[in-house]
Structure formats: C-alpha cells, structure tokens
Amino acid sequence: GRRESRVCTVRVPINIALVKYWGKRDQTQNIPLNDSLSLTINSLHARTTLRVNYEIGTDSVKINGKSQTVTGSRYQRVFEEVRRWERKRKAGEVAEHPVSIQFEITSETNFPVSAGLASSAAGFAAIAECLQKIFGFTDSQKSQLARLGSGSAIRSIFGGLVRWRRGTQPNYEDSIAESFPSTHWPSLRALILVVDEGRKEYSSTDGMQRTVETSTLLERRIECCDVNIDKICAAFSNRDFSAMADMIMRDSNNFHAVCMDTSPPLMYLNDVSRTIIRLVHVYNEKNGSTVIAYTFDAGPNATLYLEEDTVQDFLDFATKQLRFAESAQTEVEEILGHKLDES
Ligand code: PMV
C-alpha cells in the first residue's frame, strides 16, 4: 500500500569560520583543499521542517515564506542523492516499483538570510539532520548530505569549536567535521555587524573556482591552514584570547588577500568593512592588548569576537567613531550580539 508521509523538524545554528574554507579539490562533492575551523553561534539558527511524501511530485523549498527555485539548485543535488541511495537500498526488495519520494522543506531563520551570514550552513545542516532522522542514515551519510548542499554546512552539525578535515581517503569518507573538546568559554561573544543586507557579489562556489584557477598565493595559504588551526585550538584551550584573536584576524586578512590575488579580483570587503578593521585595531591598541577580533566571509559583513565585558565599551566606541565617518553609508545597519555556545 501507499506509505504515510513523514515529517521532521529541527533547529540548527550557523557557524562562522575562524580559518576559512576556500578552494575545492572536488567540485561535485564539495571537497575542500584545506582544513577549516569554525565556531558555532547557537543563538542564530534555522528552524527547518522536512516533509517526505512517498509519491511522485515536485519538490519544494520555502525559506522565510519565500519559495526557492529547486530545479538545478543545491537542494536538488541533495534530494537526488537521497533518491539514489534509496533506489540502491530498495533494489531487489521491490524492484518493480521505482522509488517515488517527494521533498517539501520549509525553513525559518531568526536572522536576515540574504546578509551572507552563513544561512546556507544552518539550512543544509538542518536538512541533512532531518533526512538522517527520517531515513535512518548514518552520521557519515548525514555529513555527506550537508556537505553536498554547502561545504560549510558540515561544520554546523556540531557545537562549539569545529574542525572540518579535508580528508585523505579517495572516497572522501574522512572529509568530515569534528568538534574540539572542552570548548566551554561562557564569556565569549560574537557580534555580527550587518554592513550590507544585499546578496553577495559572487557565490562562494564561483569565487573559489576562480581563485583556484588564477591565484598564485592560494597555494601558500593552504600550506598554512593546519598550523593556524592548531594555534587557534591551543589558544582556545588556554583561554588565551589575544593569541586566538590575532590568528583569527590574520586568517581573515590572508583570505581576502588571496581573493584580491584572484583575477579578476574578488572584492568582498567595502569601505565600511575596512573602517571596522581599522576601528578594531585602534580599539585594541588603545586597550594595550588584543581584546577583540574581526573576521569577514565572502561578503562585507563583520563578525567580531570578544568577551562579554568588552561588548558595551566597544559598541560605545564604535558607534561614536562610525557616526563621525563622512559617508552616510558607513552606518552599520544592524548589530546582532550573540552567545556562541551554551553547552
Ligand atoms: O559553504 P560555502 O560553499 O558557502 O563556502 C563558505 C566559504 C566561506 O564562508 C567564505 C568560508 C567558510 O569556511 O565558511
């Protein structure tokens, strides 16, 4: 007889990389050239519901009430993989029946999705989590599905400090994320400065490909990632904020230097981003030690890391400075202050 529909709802947070993933060695499977490291930001999340209908029909994806194009999208890639696995599993069982599975996704985020705030990481990790629950997939399969949707989504499967290993096995089985133990740092905060809510100029996939094809600095960056990850993890264990902050800013700047070394250049930062970079360095200098770090993904918005007791003072300082800046554009649109990890 016909099978009942299955429904699953999960809530999965975003993550922001401290050592960025940039460059794929396999485009179709989203396998990275370098290991990356991130912090999961618990209070910014996607709440995602997946309904699976065992019938023929069109898949649908709705994010914050808006229908998304599924044909040719990364969603379709994930859905097709699941159908392929299910077909394989069913082969022999009921060979005469093709596997008819229809997917329906609705997702709500508690932050602006278009702001380039790693919304796809939360979204695809949530979809993978639902798929695992409904189909009984292994953890490795869940990781594979999250990664197929968006590479960085593989890191949102865990909380705290998370490393995505590029993997060495030919079948990519070991290109998975792992959480760094004892990441409890209750006073650590992230501030996200939304400089521009617009869509990013180039998708990360297109940007990465162009960098791999044209940048001569990328190779050197990739050589340094493992060492930098180890340094940040060590600083994290020692609660050495300034050592950690220094490495975070260096990686962000190195990443954007590599983007600039791409031809034609990928210019993700704008004048406001650069003002924020300057402000952070001025503030740290004024303080006599590094108490705040910035990092920028493939877009102009800043994520600042700092401890709780620095938040208000920095905001007072920054808003005063930003208001004095000449262009009206330099107003930061929105500031989201968030706890990283409550586990
Ligand atoms: O997950 P993707 O394919 O959107 O790539 C993410 C790339 C960066 O956000 C720039 C870096 C990272 O590691 O998250």
From TrEMBL:
<dbReference type="InterPro" id="IPR014721">
    <property type="entry name" value="Ribsml_uS5_D2-typ_fold_subgr"/>
</dbReference>
<keyword id="KW-0152">Cholesterol biosynthesis</keyword>
<dbReference type="InterPro" id="IPR053859">
    <property type="entry name" value="MVD-like_N"/>
</dbReference>
<dbReference type="GO" id="GO:0005829">
    <property type="term" value="C:cytosol"/>
</dbReference>
<keyword id="KW-0547">Nucleotide-binding</keyword>
<keyword id="KW-0443">Lipid metabolism</keyword>
<keyword id="KW-0067">ATP-binding</keyword>
<comment type="function">
    <text>Catalyzes the ATP dependent decarboxylation of (R)-5-diphosphomevalonate to form isopentenyl diphosphate (IPP). Functions in the mevalonate (MVA) pathway leading to isopentenyl diphosphate (IPP), a key precursor for the biosynthesis of isoprenoids and sterol synthesis.</text>
</comment>
<keyword id="KW-0456">Lyase</keyword>
<dbReference type="InterPro" id="IPR036554">
    <property type="entry name" value="GHMP_kinase_C_sf"/>
</dbReference>
<comment type="pathway">
    <text>Steroid biosynthesis; cholesterol biosynthesis.</text>
</comment>
<dbReference type="GO" id="GO:0019287">
    <property type="term" value="P:isopentenyl diphosphate biosynthetic process, mevalonate pathway"/>
</dbReference>
<dbReference type="GO" id="GO:0006695">
    <property type="term" value="P:cholesterol biosynthetic process"/>
</dbReference>
<dbReference type="InterPro" id="IPR020568">
    <property type="entry name" value="Ribosomal_Su5_D2-typ_SF"/>
</dbReference>
<dbReference type="InterPro" id="IPR005935">
    <property type="entry name" value="Mev_decarb"/>
</dbReference>
<feature type="domain" description="Diphosphomevalonate decarboxylase-like N-terminal">
    <location>
        <begin position="13"/>
        <end position="177"/>
    </location>
</feature>
<keyword id="KW-0153">Cholesterol metabolism</keyword>
<keyword id="KW-1207">Sterol metabolism</keyword>
<dbReference type="GO" id="GO:0005524">
    <property type="term" value="F:ATP binding"/>
</dbReference>
<keyword id="KW-0756">Sterol biosynthesis</keyword>
<comment type="similarity">
    <text>Belongs to the diphosphomevalonate decarboxylase family.</text>
</comment>
<protein>
    <recommendedName>
        <fullName>Diphosphomevalonate decarboxylase</fullName>
        <ecNumber>4.1.1.33</ecNumber>
    </recommendedName>
</protein>
<dbReference type="InterPro" id="IPR041431">
    <property type="entry name" value="Mvd1_C"/>
</dbReference>
<keyword id="KW-0752">Steroid biosynthesis</keyword>
<keyword id="KW-0753">Steroid metabolism</keyword>
<feature type="domain" description="Mvd1 C-terminal">
    <location>
        <begin position="190"/>
        <end position="343"/>
    </location>
</feature>
<keyword id="KW-0444">Lipid biosynthesis</keyword>
<dbReference type="Pfam" id="PF22700">
    <property type="entry name" value="MVD-like_N"/>
</dbReference>
<dbReference type="InterPro" id="IPR029765">
    <property type="entry name" value="Mev_diP_decarb"/>
</dbReference>
<dbReference type="GO" id="GO:0004163">
    <property type="term" value="F:diphosphomevalonate decarboxylase activity"/>
</dbReference>
<dbReference type="Pfam" id="PF18376">
    <property type="entry name" value="MDD_C"/>
</dbReference>
